[in-house]
Amino acid sequence: MEIHLPSLPMMEILSYLDAYSLLQVAQVNKNWNALASSDVLWRKLCQKRWLYCDMVTLQLHGKKTWKQFFFYRTWQEHAKSRAKPEDFTYKEIPVEFEFRAYAYYISRHGLTRNGQGKSAVCMVTSTNRISTWDIHEGAMTWESPVQESYIELMTTLPEMHIAVTVDISSTIKLWDCHNRDALATKSIFSPCQILKAVFTKDGPIVLVGDTSGNLYIFRIPDLHLISRHNVFPYAIDELHCSPQNKWVLLIIRNPQVLTKVVYMSSLLRTSEFSDPVSTSLKFPLCQGVFWTPRREDRITLMARNAPPRPAKFGTFDMKLEEIGNKVTVQGHLVASFSLQDYKERAEWMGVSEKDTIVCSTGSSLLLFDMNGLRLQTFQYCPEQIFRLWVDPVHVIVTCNDGSLDIYAWEERSPLLRKCYRLQNRRYLLPSSFINNALCDDVSIIGVMISSPSFCYLMAYTLNS
């Protein structure tokens, strides 16, 4: 006998389910299948998983329903997990950049409308200019004029194909990476320490932290100053936004000052909030930070460790609270543990959407749940782990010999699955290393520093 429930209560119940559960519900009968396939439900899942879905229409992606789009994007996200080393094309792009090399994606997810892969990156060069490169072709596609001052920091906003730079004179410039002249220019008084461009529900912005502890919010594309607040007595060293950019976490490397979390809307809507709404997390000596992917209010911190003190992890849930007409924010510690049995220093960390914590020492990749239960260990010898890249789909381990190990998060378990190794193609001098490694849906890039001078961008692109 078929079960029929009123549509509105049923839709309310289904709105709490994930994609896998909705597919199971759809198997019950035709009525449940129609409800579980609703565009309202699948668009909500898409917006939770990918922030930019708030700002696009299905027509831009060539899909008719949000359910189709969800599975198309999920399939694309896992393209690298299904691949083999021989499915990648390797290129080296020699670029004249210095030791402090920057390379950021300027293309959104590396995909075009027809689903074909196309990745582009933006880099700072030693000649005081920035340039963009099609890494599939290994060719430069745009270059800015030579700047008067040395470019210290750069960030990109791939959704708008925009780059933002800050030079040694504290001049901020916004580039659309098509025209030779900057779209907008703004100067501040103190030297810049941190720079980030993000999309928020109020529009695209640039966040700038200076050496005096001030946090600036500028509007894109005209760099109009939205707000400026002094949040620390010292320089802001790190800035991390939550997955949907609801929160901003700020760190300074001073053992006497705690990490601070600020409610983003209080920085953007100055007519509603006279001061930033923030709280300090009681977790000193913070070394690593990672927001739980696709879960807006949960963050995990890793405390600095040096023998004999072990690394310590703490997971907090952020919560807005209204008392009368005043909005406050609280950070609630929900779990913590220490690496008591590991003598090696924990260097890098990340978190999966299932709250699995992954961290690396020089010789091991370790997985724990947020209460400290060890789930997996991957040993490295004779190689050493140099860096770690963690996103909602992959974990990429950079080894000291220049090789990359690709792991994927399991869909229905908290564990990692090792996929393959991308072997370094050339001999490295002892002083050589990958300065940073990152990926999009169809490529993996790394900036290889070969002291004393030669540097290049190593790029693995997934064949169509």
Describe this structure in words.
Strand 14 and strand 15 (247-251) form a beta hairpin. The chain contains 7 helices and 32 strands. The chain has 2 domains: 7-77, Up-down Bundle (Monooxygenase); 79-462, YVTN repeat-like/Quinoprotein amine dehydrogenase (Methylamine Dehydrogenase, Chain H). The mean pLDDT is 86. It is globular. The protein has 464 residues and is mostly beta strands. Helix content is 12%, strand content 43%. The strands form 8 sheets. It has a 4-stranded antiparallel β-sheet, with no helix packed on it. Keywords: Ubl conjugation pathway. Pathway: Protein modification; protein ubiquitination.
List the helices and strands and how they pair.
Blueprint: H1 7-14, H2 19-25, H3 30-36, H4 39-49, H5 66-77, H6 79-82, E1 88-94, E2 103-105, E3 120-125, E4 129-134, E5 139-143, E6 151-157, E7 162-167, E8 171-175, E9 184-187, E10 192-200, E11 203-210, E12 214-219, E13 225-230, E14 238-241, E15 247-251, E16 259-263, H7 264-268, E17 278-281, E18 286-291, E19 298-303, E20 312-323, E21 326-338, E22 348-351, E23 357-360, E24 364-368, E25 374-379, E26 385-390, E27 394-399, E28 404-409, E29 416-422, E30 432-439, E31 443-450, E32 455-462
Antiparallel strand pairs: 1-32, 2-3, 3-4, 4-5, 6-7, 7-8, 8-9, 10-11, 11-12, 12-13, 14-15, 15-16, 16-17, 18-19, 19-20, 20-21, 22-23, 23-24, 24-25, 26-27, 27-28, 28-29, 30-31, 31-32
Helix pairs in contact: 4-5
Organism: Mus musculus
Pathway: Protein modification; protein ubiquitination
Protein name: F-box and WD-40 domain protein 16
